[in-house]
Amino acid sequence: MLKQINKTPVPIIYRDILKNKMNGELTIRGHDFTKILFFLNGNLAFAKTTKKEERFGEILLELRKINQSQFLEIKDLVEGEKDNLGRILVNKKIINNKDIYFALIHQIKTIAISTFSLPSVEWDFNSHVLNIPSNSKFDIDLLEIINEGINKISDFSFYKNKFLSLAVEVSSIPENIKKSLSTEDCQFYEKLSDFKNRSIDQIFSELKIKEEFFWKKTILFYLLNIVSFYEIKIDENLEQNIEELLELYEKIKLDKINLYQLLNIENNATQDEIKDAYFKLAKKYHPDRISTTSKPEIQEIANLVFASINQAFETLRDEDQKRKYDKESLVTKNKTYENLIERAKILYRKAKTLYNNQRYWESSTVMNEAVKYDSSRSSYFLLLGLSQMNVSTLKREAEKNLKKAVDIDPWNAEPLVALGKLYFSENMIKSAENYFKKALSVNPEHALAIKRLEEITNKHSKKTKPPFSFLFKKKKN
């Protein structure tokens, strides 16, 4: 059956012939030529061609075994003769048998190597034992043809379409093939062996080498049967695992996670639970399982995260190391907590000074940092809310933080009054009235709450209609 080379290039059949030591006849038909290559036990035995520049006379002229004058006389020499050209030239003592032999080998190689660069042609291979006369039978190593022919490939589109999304699997190189490879070939082969479960596209992206070099070497190894390709099994949870991996990485980088949290276990976990947790994480975050991502930086992050997971496992699985870690962690935790509390106090004092100097934006910025270190104090959220109240773009945040202050200390009238003031400034009179009343229920003598309630009462008595509030108005997109 005839096949189109743009679907299956001719060199693909060489791979099977080499691997299975096949016998047979490969016929290639182009627009204006035919080539026939004969194979015995996986090697090239003979070749014929109708392509003008590959005919025997042209080969002899190319090799300078005959001169231009002798070449022009070939037609007259063979006219009426039954022998082939080589025998005629030997009989007429124009050339010797040795030159004929090497010229024939050169011709056969030329015909075979030229098939690597052919445009779209039809070909078929008939597998059968050949009956070739002994004087026309050669034994040319197909390894040699593939090694030389690979440099004739200029269009890699078929191979890209076929292999780009597949992963490459390397195998050990047989000694006879290894001898045919250059040092450069072997070095590149070793690089390929470092990539497991990675697509050809990803490998090329990471190696950062010339595209022509990459594809010629990869195709060479494929034709020599020392690499194969396979589909990467897609993990349906890969995207989620990568997202979790990045979150872990950020926590590890900022030192915001301990060994127990890293393994997702309790502090009193048993050794079996520690082991189970480790293997569960290995299934999700091992670099080989993350390697299907197209981003090289993800692979590096996976290496770093899994190194931390390994370290956590090695520490917690050893009872002595575990006790030592727990003791050091307790001391560190207490010290860290004390440092954070002290840091928050310093920031609070600084923000209070800024607030008193009416530098409200700076005060709110400082207090935002303070509540990160200590989020247990009502007074911190109160100062943060008061500062934000005085910045027009932060009034929404002010409301949230003042309510946090109320939640932490519901018996403190100040955040209730502050909320009343915020709503009053926005002409949200009903809300303001409610919070001033709540403040007075906590502290009946609070002067500002009393004053604001009197103002609200006076407004109501005059039946004035308050302007529209913009505090919670939806922003236009």
Task: Give the N-to-C terminal Cα separation.
Answer: 64 Å
Major beta sheet, strand line-up:
1-5-2-3-4
What would you report as the Rg, rounded to the nearest angstrom? Answer: 42 Å
Helix content: 55-70%
How much beta, percentage-wise? 5-15%
Shape: elongated
Low-confidence stretches: 473-477
Number of DSSP helices?
A: 24
* Mean of all residue-level pLDDT scores: 87
Query: Structural class of the secondary structure composition?
Result: alpha+beta
**Main sheet overview:** 5 strands, antiparallel
Secondary structure tally: strands: 7
How would you explain this protein's 3D organization?
- The chain is α+β, with helices and mostly antiparallel strands and 477 residues long.
- Among the domains are: 3-146, no CATH class; 156-230; 239-317, Orthogonal Bundle (Helix Hairpins).
- The chain contains 24 helices and seven strands.
- The protein has helices at 11-20, 56-62, 68-72, 74-78, 85-91, 97-114, 142-149, 157-163, 175-180, 183-193, 200-207, 211-223, 238-253, 259-263, 271-285, 287-290, 296-316, 319-356, 360-373, 378-389, 395-408, 413-425, 429-442, 447-461; strands at residues 3-4, 24-29, 34-40, 43-49, 122-126, 167-170, 227-230.
- The strands form two sheets. The protein has a five-stranded antiparallel beta sheet. A two-stranded antiparallel sheet has the order 6-7.
- A hairpin with a 2-residue loop joins β3 and β4.
- The longest helix has 38 residues, at 319-356.
- The chain is elongated, with a radius of gyration of 42 Å.
- Mean pLDDT is 87; it is low at 473-477.
